[in-house]
Amino acid sequence: MPFMPLTPAIRSPTQSMAAALQPVRLEAIALTCIRDEATLFRDLDFSAEAGEVLLIGGPNGSGKTSLLRLLGGLGAPESGTVRWCGSDIAVLGADFRAALEYVGHANGIKLDLTTRENLEFNAALRGGIDGATIAGALDRSGLSGLGETRARRLSAGQRRRLALARLRLSDAPLWLLDEPLTALDAEGRELVAGLVGDHARGGGIAIVATHESPVSPSFDARRISL
User: Fold this and answer.
1) Is 34 in a helix, a strand, or coil?
2) How far apart are CA 112 and CA 152, in angstroms?
3) Strand partners of residue 57
4) What's the predicted TM-score (pTM) here?
5) To 5 degrees, how large is the angle CA 74–CA 6–CA 181?
6) Which backbone phi and psi does 115 adopt, to 5 degrees?
7) Strand partners, 100
């Protein structure tokens, strides 16, 4: 089933009906980012539609992570606007955050929890998911048999797999992934390619900042270079 856009909690009936007709779409309009007095990019424009994958490329320091943070509402641009389904993400607030799954450089896992408990914690933030589904996510992420292992005992690659496993539990239409292939072996890269491909075919949007392409990608992608 295609993703349906989320609408702000406070709107008039006319506004709500208009928003419901908006397609799933992310737009960056004239974005300018300045960090430590250096301009990383200026007047950047692009959009992503339902079913699309965008690969954001560029050398270290070009602003890939900064761009993802702006797209996710984790920072404010020097100028410009990010829109989700036709509305400014600053106005949408929590409704936009509910439509978003972000995996950054840091894995965002709790080292004192087991792999299973990490996924349960994340799932609880979105209303809870049954144990069988969580076990399936671990298995499909190559972590079968490690459900009761504390995250601090995992290798760097296994921790990255755990961070990405939460994507299997998410119904968020927008994924922002920052260097998702870090620390992964060839099998892990294939898993990422499959995840992103499945998400796009299901009508989601994936924006991936990376300096390398997933192995044997199962999807078509547009590239944007910074």
Assistant:
1) strand
2) 7
3) 225
4) 0.87
5) 50
6) -60, -40
7) 174
